[in-house]
Amino acid sequence: MIRLMPSLGLIIHMSKDEERILTKHPQGKTGVSISKAKYDLIKMGLIDCLKAKPLTQDELMNCVTKRLQSKFEGSMKWYAENVKLDLEARGEIERVTGKKKETYRLRKQKN
Fold first, then answer.
1. List of residues 6+ apart from 69 with CB closer than 8 A
2. Residue 95 CB neighbours (<10 A)
3. How many whole angstroms separate alpha carbon 84 and alpha carbon 81?
């Protein structure tokens, strides 16, 4: 069964055992369907890592891996990359091109 949640910009695939979410991609490419529980856990970790300061790709992946390594089963970097791209596509985080390296940061909220 598929449940559409347009107000949240989500399509959730339901199975007997788990909810799934179809991610978005910032370049409009096809996203991936992943466990909503894993999505939520990785999203929380990414946002927590970016609260202090902008981070490079490597710094962000290392941070989320350290925070969640005991709480996660599966290829954390693969999930983290796909959730990061989804958050970027949804405007929750942004990629900033710098002189030396790209960094990621939480998108500033408009008042």
1. 76
2. 14
3. 5
pLDDT tens profile 28-80: 999 999 999 999 999 999 999 999 999 999 999 999 999 998 888 888 899 99
The answer to whether 69 and 62 are in contact (CB under 8 A) is no
pTM score:
0.81
Residue 65 is encoded by which pair of tokens? 């891996």
Residues 6+ apart with CB under 8 A from 51: 106
Of 51, 41, 58, give the one whose Cα is nearest residue 93.
Answer: 51
| Options 3.10.20.740, 2.30.30.40, 2.60.40.200, 1.10.10.10; CATH of 2-106 | 1.10.10.10
